[in-house]
Specification:
The complex is a heterodimer of chains A (135) and B (171).
Chain A (H helix, E strand, L loop, with lengths): L10 H22 L9 E6 L2 E7 L7 E7 L2 E7 L4 E6 L5 H4 L9 E4 L4 E6 L14
Antiparallel strand pairs in A: 1-2, 1-7, 3-4, 4-5, 6-7
Chain B lengths: L4 H20 L5 H4 L10 H11 L2 H19 L3 H22 L5 H24 L8 H26 L8
Helix pairs in contact in B: 1-3, 1-4, 3-4, 3-5, 3-7, 4-5, 5-6, 6-7
The chains are: A alpha+beta (135), B mainly alpha (171).
Amino acid sequence: MKSSPKLRPCGWDALVVLLVLLLAVGCGAAVWGGNEATHDLTAVISVDGETAETVALSSLSGPEERTLTANGYTLHLVLSPEEVYMEAADCPTQDCVHTGHISRSGQSIVCLPARVIVRLEGGQKDESAPDVVIG
Amino acid sequence: MKLTTKQLTLCAVLTAMALALSYLENFFPLSLAIPIPGIKLGLANIVTVFALYALGPGQALLILLARCFLGAVFAGNMNALIFSLLGGVTAMLVMIGLSRLRKLSVYGVSVGGAAAHNCGQVAAAVLTLGNTAPLYYLPVLLGVSLFTGALTGLISACLFRALAHTDLMKG
């Protein structure tokens, strides 16, 4: 044994927890805040870090489907005037499908295996809506 | 670094255990509850915490590197390597630093490591995707790391208690 650790939580551990919490709140304010409305809600679809398509949701008359093929995977994205969601994907993790429907500025759907990001930008911020839904 | 046969064997067993824990994690898909790419319990971190105290930073780092490389080879996914390496090494460095502060218990070290691991992985996602969108997940991931870090801290504390009087901890 090189060094024996303390096995009971103590006050100093709370300091680490507090630091992590502060970092989380700080990041949250930086990432989620300051997203003022400038133009209509727009879905920015990027593949491999490059913007592939930008769709103003208000310009759509009804749900439209996009088939994205990237890095060997095929993703079926549905865009509608109110929301965006990944209907199906053949990637192993399915995180993008599980992300569900996004409808607010700043939200995004990320598919790591296919390196596809769909991010909503602009539009009115809905202050009453929750930032994140967990569970 | 010169390793005795006992140390080398322990490193090998711990690497195998870390790989097994990474695999076991797939049966607790945290991403179903919180849909964020790559979110997980971080059970392999138990091995890192244990190795850090029982064998020291050098061997703990060796085990971590072996786990990351072998994990990527077994998964047949070299893209995952940058994620596990950046996450793992960031967590390792933070935990080495925190464990030197003798006032912190294994819980504080483990929570710090979990938070650092998430920061490293988000950094890897930003680098590979060439887009800052993954930063959006960081606040949630940091919040989750408080719970996963405390869980791995608890398991590590139980492990140290159970092994306290064995021959394993004397060498």
